[in-house]
## 1
Amino acid sequence: MFRYREEATAKKIIESLRAMDLKDISIMHVCGTHQDTLVKFGIEAMLKDVGIRIRQGPGCPVCVTTTKEVVEAITLAKSGVTITVFGDMLTVPTPIGSLADAKAEGADVRVVYSSTDAIKVAKDAEKVVFMAIGFETTSPTTAAVLLDDPPENFSVMSCHRILPPALDALFHMGEVKIDGLIQPGHVATIIGLRPFDRFSKDLKVPQVVGGFEPLDVMVTVYMIAKQLVEGRAEVENEYSRVVRPEGNPIAMRMLEDVFHPVDRNWRGFPVIPGGTLELRPEFEAHNARKVYEEIIAKAPVVREDMGGCRCGEMLRGIIESKDCPAFGKSCTPKRPMGPCMVSREGGCNISYRYRQE
Amino acid sequence: MCLAVPGKILSIDGKNAQVDFGGVVRETNVSMVDVGVGSYVIIHAGFAIQVVDEEEAKETIQLWQEMLEQTSQEPL
């Protein structure tokens, strides 16, 4: 088996980074799986010790889904429509409760592990909506079932996001110092390297697409640091065993056939131009927002910010979970105040799970 | 969400394949990849999203070692 966790190599990397004598370097990543590896294996702390601070950006699909979208799904569920959804979404709190609360009150909310599971549900339920969340890694799996003659009673409420426009928004807002970017390996598996070019060419930011084993992440950081020391700003690929420069053309074609980009809010962000995927008009018969337009129009209008929850700032990389007064006190995975504590990819949930007692 | 794991293809029937995840076998949709039996694939939410390049995987490890040996010789 491959040696992706060898400690001796990890030590060598840290010593090489120490020799670079870096000071106050800020590197952002945008993936919950990267955050999990960074925290679980104590890499974040090791890097801090050699002058590198890691920030998590908007890399948690559950977290960036807006309260409005969750409220619309709850409204549909309460009206008698079966909602199928990935498990992490179930307990996201809103002013009208969560999908789990709606289920407890008798609504038909079912956890699925894939879009194909949602299709199976449609075979024994009357009206089924798949609340589709996720970045470019996941959206092709929704596209695939829509292209495969889905049942008439099946529709999709697309909450799919596109990652690069969120990075544009972060740089445009300018609230956070970003000296380098760790790009998410499994998003790049689909979209390839080209969509990241502009951040290196126009903004001179070094970027490396990274895998998810501890050594993958450490080497990725090392490659970014090397670019900084050598004054380069390029898109490099550490995860070449999976990521091809062109991505996955079959998946990209599926995405283009089914979806088109629209301008919508992300949690913690203003409207991000072209940052959300909506179904093309050809798929209107399977677009839950069209099929159930009248029910969704009755969804209560709610405030996006959940009182006291600082998820928005977490998603923009401005604060860490420890900076939030509610963290681990009034906000825990059992009683979450916001999605960053709900999702296993949320920064607060990860910090809570691996916290030092 | 973007968590994806490697598995080995045991058999293929149209769009679906039986994939071995280190002993656990599950059905996986392979409509997004061009694969054959015996290939290693990366699976996300029930779909194979890419084929793992075993040669690249071996080379990655090699490169890491070389890169670090080189670094310890030349001051940055």
Note: Chain B touches chain A through 34 residues (CB under 8 Å).
## 2
Amino acid sequence: MALSPQRREFLLDTAKLACGVGVLGLGLGLVSKQAKALPPGAIRPPGAGLEDDFQGACIRCGLCVRDCPYDILKLATLGQPVATGTPFFVARAKPCEMCEDIPCVKACPTGALDHSLTDIKKAKMGLAVLVDQETCLNFLGLRCDVCYRVCPAIDEAITLELQHNTRTDKHTRFLPTVHSEACTGCGKCEASCVLEVAAIKVYPIKLAKGELGAHYQLGWEEKRKAGGKSLVDNRNLVDLPDRLPDGVQLPGHWDPGSAAPAMPAPLSDEAPR
Amino acid sequence: MSHAAMKLAQEATEAKGWWRAHRFLVLRRVSQLSILFLFLMGPWLGWWLVKGNLNYSLTLGVLPLADPLVLLQSLLTRHVPERNALLGATIILLFYLLVGGRAYCSWVCPVNLVTDAASALRRRLDIRGGADLPRATRYWMLVLILLLAATSGGIVWELVNPVSMLPRGLMFGMGAGWLLIGGIFLFDLFVMKNGWCGHLCPVGAFYSLLGRFSVVRVTANQRAACNDCLDCFTVCPEQQVIKLPLKGAKKGASPIILSGNCTNCGRCVDVCSKDVFTLTTRFKPKLDSSAQALPNP
């Protein structure tokens, strides 16, 4: 059955248009995939939530930028690796000052910045990670301490963990240690790290944080929750040897499993791996 | 001197004076530039009457205005916005239902300054022809961007939308956005006449749909006086909307331009030496008396 010339032309034109627009859509879709991979250096304002949700919720109006009293937030422009028109800041350049009234969140008309965030200390803009122990001055044995001192949640988000300096054998290393439950990701530590390139950096939480399997239980936590009663009964546990390399001795190390020959004989040779 | 050799609006200027042959053009430029200036007063002068950009703004700290198309895309990503965004989009919807959907395009959108410049230069350099696409391509584009929002979960169109990028860029920093705006200028100049605003822009397509129901409309209510100078066709960015209301008297067509594609720019009103066109409402009682409907002798 032959098509009438008009109908044929109509169908062809429609096919042309559909293909053209479809190719454009494919391109845009790929660009949007790229845009969803927020680069590690770009931190979203407080209350932004997951990147996927944020890019559907943010209408790119810039009111958060306008209401930031410290001029820290910027809107991404075409060509930057952040979704065009969305707000972000670069911690190393200018970190979040953590205003108590959180004006950027209040200004957001869509709730892309979650209005239920009213305590800035509960913000999760990102998570600080001490990424390079080889250059961190405190790890090298000095008392830089700058990241620890500038932290708005000092002694909660960053603590200094003391450790014997085995290199000098007569000093203590004060190791900056980040605690994710208190870190807001404001970026003060990264901004003030005295190195040429910061050894401590703020990353989006998705990048920075590991996640335990849902079935994992930490024995000491369970014990604390149960009011000191352990999940497992200690008395019947076999203490396996620690199998330190030959000749190594750690100060304060106690290893009854290796010391006591009272282990059941068949097991002493074949320790579980 | 023949019509073709005469400058556009020359006949109208001679018949009505310069102001009446250019007033809508001037008023439109004043409107477009004042709106930009209202937004730029904050960053430039520190006078924060208006904050935000054309996607969403807050005026004097109380009046929210939001782009309904951006909000629609956001809704399609299944985000539930706060009250202010919904309120702002409703106000804008009602406003353009009143003044004509694509009045946004001709009286507000700063990309119109760019494409009008390309259009004027095209006329001056006498560049003809080029690529062509159906005017309905923009509706395909509109469907595409809504689909992208619904399927990807992000407002994908805002990654590249020149309509929001130009004003936002002027207010917050442009980056490589100038390349896109320059590209649209060159496209309209060399590749396709009225290419962006008249064929492709999905934002314009959205406002076209709104314009189908809007109150303020252009009317060719003195169409009997038309002397076929074609100035209105030359200047109109959506010339297909004029033909039937202007020339359809015999077919009994209404002189009111009801097509949503009409941008209510009023340039046809300006350039007509016979004052055929006026801005009225769509509810205007038909002026077409039988005497007026008679063909021009």
Note: Residues 11 and 135 of chain B are 30 Å apart (CA to CA).
